[in-house]
Amino acid sequence: MLPNVYEFSWEPHRIVFVAFFLTVAGVLVAHVATSLWRSWRDVRAGRAGSLRWHEDFEELPEERRLCRHASHGDAAVRACENGFDCAHCERHRSRGPVASTGAGSVHGLEIRADTFYHRGHTWVRPEPDGRVKVGLTPLAVRMLPADARLRIPEPGEEIRSGDPAFVLADGSVRVLAPIEGRVVRCGFEDGLLTLTLDPGRPLAEHVELLSGHEAVGWMERELRQLQARLLGTEAASAWADGGAVADDLTRVVPGADWGSVRRDMFLDA
Amino acid sequence: MLEVALRADAPAVTVPAAPPETPSRHCSRRAFTLWLIPWALLLAAGAFACLQCLVDGLHHTNMDNRYVFGLWIFLDLTVIALGAGAFTSGLLAYVFHWKEVRAVLHLAVLTGLLCYGGAVAILMVDVGQPLRAWFTFWHPNVHSMLAEVTFCLTCYLIVLAVEFVPILTRHRRLRSTPGVAVVGSRVHRGMVVLAVLGATLSFFHQGSLGGLYGVLQGRPFAFREELWIFPTTFFLFVLSAMAIGPAFLVLIARVFEIVTRRLLVPRATIDRLARLSGTLLLVYLALKAVDTLVWLNTTVPDSGLQPAWLYRQPPFGSWVLVAEFLVLGLVPALLLRRAAHQSRAMITWAAVLGCAGIALNRLVATLQTLILPSLPFEDTWAYVPNWQENVAFAGVIALAVIVLSLAHRADLLFGRHPELESSASER
Amino acid sequence: MEARRHRYTLLIDLDRCDGCGACSVACAIENNCAVPPAEAGPRKSILPLRVDRVVHQQGGEVDEVFVPIMCQHCQHHTPCAMVCPQTAVDLDPETGVVSQVVDRCLGCRYCMAACPYHARSFNWWRPEWDTSLARHLAPDVPVRQRGVVEKCNLCHGRWQRAYDRAAEEGRRELEPGEFVPACGESCPRGAIRLVDLDDPGDPNHGDAHGDRAFHLLDRLGTEPTVTYLSARDWVRRIDDPACFDRDREVSHA
Q1: Chain-chain contact of A186 with B2 (C-beta, under 8 angstroms)
Q2: What is the mean pLDDT of the segment spanning C117-136?
């Protein structure tokens, strides 16, 4: 098999044979070794969450990955190819920043003017002391059972890009944190769970967050998509309530595949 | 991590409002267990048959000094040809950028891994001294087709295992361990390299499996002329494997759909793969026809034999040629080519026929070669596999079914296709 | 001084062989073959040398011949040596003998599929000898385990012993008759003899290259060395492919 091991002879057929398989083995070993080494470095550098997010993003259905510019009647633009990382996106840069202000209500779901919204259904609001408060959007709350218990990071823990802010206690869905930062404390606002964070970067750098009428449009689309998943139709008249979304959708539509619905809506592939 | 209630006014004791088991895209746990039980029993029986042969000797099979290759080798060859869908789909997706193929990539890799892993497992039982398997690597005979097969198969099995890592790391519970998702992601980035490597290795081992028989100058049925340095069966085996691989993939996907009673693969994927399969099968049949004519009219008479004698030993009569070329060859090839105009059920049947045709080809290569003696005064013996041989291979199939079932339940195999979920079952 | 190269092989006179089978038994004893279990039968036993009986019918006349068949020690593109993935088959250029390296054999049986003479056997069972038989094992021949292929090695152990004895006496060449394989030694009619095809001085050399000499399956181009002798035309053509079409009767002795 190898030179100087019995029966080896320098004939062309043998050289080709041995060279071919040593090359194959070499390429395989090199690939596996570099993958493992790079992975170890990624975990050490805290990039694990971000890498996982970008991988999971590919698995989401296309309708969950719509580019924010797609709604502006821009037919050439459909699915996001960047993991919603608008700050580093050519498409976003060429279209310019989205100046969006205002507030609104979508069938009883409130969009506040002073709040930024993450497409994974969390909101961020800057506080006077430089910290930020993070919570679940009104639609997110309604997708969880009223008695839901969530696992949250402990005070002092660091949340990195791609890490979850809230995990349903049974582990069936992870709600991603809108920004990176260090957890200060948890609390309740309007009876709902919130986290207070020391942001890792200034909030202005998070250009992927939605606000104002862009956020209102986004919430409308989210509600329609949720309705289509639950009831099989997007028509607004299906909301027999006459306008407001029910408090606990899991009671209204108990027969739905909630595990799958939540994972889609919270962008947790 | 802390655990807190979502609402400040949540009751201390949780009262379940939703039904205890919320429905998902899979069947209930009880139904799944009932499905697994018979396969587990079959696997246990197969393991017993294999252990008997490993511990006590291969006399527990019906093979003998004339039929040195039997059911196991024939099925190994078939299964390796069918598992070729793994490398063809990898090539189509990562090198030729066929987007439709992505829907079945995970299935292709796992099916390939199970096909090749199962074949190697049975091979380890089939050889007399499995612990000496490493001798081939240390003392290789570079002129032997079987040495080439050993090297290529081993390397390719490793490639498949590496390709499976990103699929395995998609498992939700595994993924929650930090680092697991990252490893999967990093391995996945090298997929093009793995796809090309896999295709190269597969080309050589599929061909060498055909070359196994083509080089046997001492056996009247098997020997074939050489094209460059390989017998023609080398190229025919590669082409037939590439042709049937996508069709087998479609067949497995359809079996999943039939068993789970859900649509799992978009029609565009099925159509494109089936059409490719049909086209390649037609090319293969044309080349095979040329090879058979040359063989019957030149090679066989040159060795002094009458071609008719080759097809006179029962059970291998001239029906073999009719079956291989027409019923299990041309018919499924044409049906698969027109996949876009067929129902899913028709495509499934066409795939079954095509796979059966390839299986027949491997059966004939193995057993018809052995049944025909070189010395005219030797009689021919009969061979029928005994229960150990049948059950051992059935056990491998059972293992494959179990692994595929578990993988599907963990949502590792098929992506999400909203357009399929809404429609009622369309057959 | 360099030793001369040899091509040792068997010269089998089919006009003398009466099918007694003593050669087959002697071969089994010399090669330390275990007694097979009852269910082994001819299909699964270790049979390095078997005797086939071929009956010839032509126009009312019936004739028969007994053909001892063993490894034919093919010299060119040896089918078994070319296909073995572990190089466990060795063609010795010095003696012309094709040997099986049983300690390296994996038991894949590819060589058995390649051999046109079906001269190879596989150890389907673990070979076992009861105490009395165990005392008779030939010391020059290794015992094998189950799961390996074996065949005639032209009594290589006997050759080695004769060679060593000659070396002690300072000779590099063997005298005629110093090395006799077990089959040749046991044949009561002297039908099996050893011949060195490359030595014109060998007493059997003339017969081996004479009119009565033929090989089985010469047409394959593998240069089998085992030489058969017969004055009968039909016997010299028993491997003729035209015979495939004729009815023939075969049984194993």
Answers
A1: yes
A2: 89
Show which of residues 115-154 on chain B sit within 8 Å of chain A, judged by CB atoms: 137-140, 142-143, 148, 151
pLDDT (tens digit, 9 = 90+) per residue, B125-134? 999 999 999 9
pLDDT category of residue A101 using cuts at 50, 70 and 90? confident
In the numeric block, the tokens 């008779």 are attached to: C136
Which of B405, B373, B391 is CA-nearest to residue B75? B391
Q: How far is B205 from chain A (nearest CA, A)?
A: 13
At residue A156 the predicted structure's pLDDT band, cuts being 50, 70 and 90, is very high
**B3/A150 touch (CB, cutoff 8 Å), yes or no:** yes
> Cα dist. A191→A112, A155, B9, B10 in Å?
17, 20, 7, 9
CA distance A188 to chain B (A): 7
> Which one is predicted more confidently, A57 or B415?
A57
- Tell me the per-residue pLDDT of C31-51, one tens digit each, with 9 for 90 and over: 999 888 888 888 899 999 999
In a domain, C1, yes or no: no
CATH number of domain containing C36:
3.30.70.20
Q: How many domains does chain C have?
A: 1
Q: What is the mean pLDDT of residues A37-64?
A: 89
What confidence score (pLDDT) does residue C244 get? 62
Mutation target for C interface from B154, B375, B384: give the one with most C CBs within 10 A. B375
Per-chain mean pLDDT for chain B: 89
Distance from CA of A104 to the nearest CA of B (A): 24
pLDDT tens-place string over residues B236-269: 999 999 999 999 999 999 999 999 998 999 999 9
> In this complex, is the C-beta atom of C241 within 8 Å of any C-beta atom belonging to chain B?
yes
- Would residue C125 count as lying in a domain? yes
- Name all domains of chain B by residue range, CATH numbers in brackets: 71-384 (1.20.1630.10)
pLDDT in tens, C210-219: 999 999 999 8
- CA distance to partner chain C, nearest, from residue B355 (Å): 26
Interchain pair C250, B304: CB under 8 A: no
Q: Does the beta-carbon distance from B4 to A7 stay under 8 Å?
A: no
**B contact test, residue of C39, C106, C222 with most B CBs within 10 A:** C106
Minimal-distance CA residue of chain C relative to B300 = C241
pLDDT at A80 (0 to 100): 87
Of B4, B143, B181, the CB nearest to A150: B4
The answer to whether residue C45 is domain-embedded is: yes
| Cβ–Cβ contact B12 with A under 8 A | no
Residue C2 in any domain: the answer is no
Q: Do C85 and B218 touch (CB under 8 A)?
A: no
Chain segment B266-291, per-residue pLDDT in tens: 999 999 999 999 999 999 999 999 99
With CB atoms and an 8 Å threshold, state whether A55 touches B22: no
Is the pLDDT assigned to residue A64 strictly greater than 80?
Answer: yes
- Closest by Cβ to C106, choosing from B58, B69, B129: B129
* pTM as predicted: 0.89
Across the interface, do B127 and C239 touch by the CB < 8 Å criterion?
no
